[in-house]
Amino acid sequence: MNERLWGILVDSFPKLLDYGIRVTVPLTVLSFALALLISVIVALIQYAQVKVLRQICRFYIWIVRGTPLLVQLWLVFYGLPSAGILIDAFPAAVLVFGFNEGAYMAESVRGALESVSRGQLEAGYCVGMSYMQIMLHVVLPQAFRTAFPALSNSLISMLKGTSLASTITVMEMFRQATVINGRVYESLGLYTEVALIYLAFCTLLTWLQRIGEKKLASYGGEKA
After folding, report:
1. Cα-Cα-Cα-Cα dihedral sign, residues 91, 96, 101, 102
2. Chain centroid to CA 151
């Protein structure tokens, strides 16, 4: 590695890491929180088999899973202004990532809900619990334990996917690397560096996922 490239990488690393911590991570966390909320609501509606609402949820999942994330980003950020709806880049990215990933996560949560025996619903009714009490205190905790690995994978995938926010002018880590590259023209070195930072973030999340799985397994009475 020549001295010029090494100097560029050393100088760019703190800048890339700063944008990763200040923009990429918050974007991921907020988007995932929205996706989790959407996925639980959609999954519960499908689990309850409310006919009209269930069809609306299936339509939402069909639309989101059948169109590219990049197209969804552009529709919201560049398309909606023509209809008089203006959304800043960062909140637009949060909305799109949240609604996009929520459709995929909803299927994971739904599958986890259906893995819980419906006999537990009847048992809950027998002891005087309401439907919502049964869902909150009996069904959802068990379903969450089952869905945790899939949801964790969705979080990791979303972290990597936030690089697409650069296409709608969000100054996150990948876009900052592109800006720096526009001055120094060291594409291979800079994009390798940003890839390694993404790898470090994802490795940390994978480590936390394993810890979480062990904790949940111990709560379920299994050996970690």
Report:
1. positive
2. 8
Consecutive 10-residue runs of the chain (224 residues): their mean pLDDT? 84 94 96 96 89 93 96 96 94 97 95 86 83 85 91 95 94 93 91 96 95 81 44
Contact 133, 172 (CB under 8 A): no
Q: Residue 164: which of 92, 65, 107 has the closest Cα?
A: 92
Residue type, 122: E
Measured between alpha carbons, how far is 159 from 27 in angstroms, rounded to an integer?
8
Is the distance from CB of 34 to CB of 155 less than 8 angstroms? no
Domains: count for the chain: 1
Amino acid at site 99: F
For residues 49-63, one letter each, b for 16 or more C-beta atoms within 10 angstroms of the residue's C-beta and e for the rest, the string is eeeeeeeebeebbee
Q: Residue 100 belongs to what domain range?
A: 3-219
CATH number, residue 214 = 1.10.3720.10
Q: Would the pTM of this model clear 0.85, i.e. be above it?
A: yes
Q: Which two tokens stand for residue 210?
A: 């394993």
d(CA 41, CA 165): 26
Whether 224 is in a domain gets the answer no
Q: How far apart are CA 174 and CA 155, in angstroms?
A: 18
Which phi and psi angles does 49 have, rounded to 5°?
Answer: 60, 45
> Six-digit token pair at 47?
């689990």
Q: Provide the residue type at 45 as one letter.
A: I
Helical packing angle, 51-65 and 25-48, nearest 10°: 140
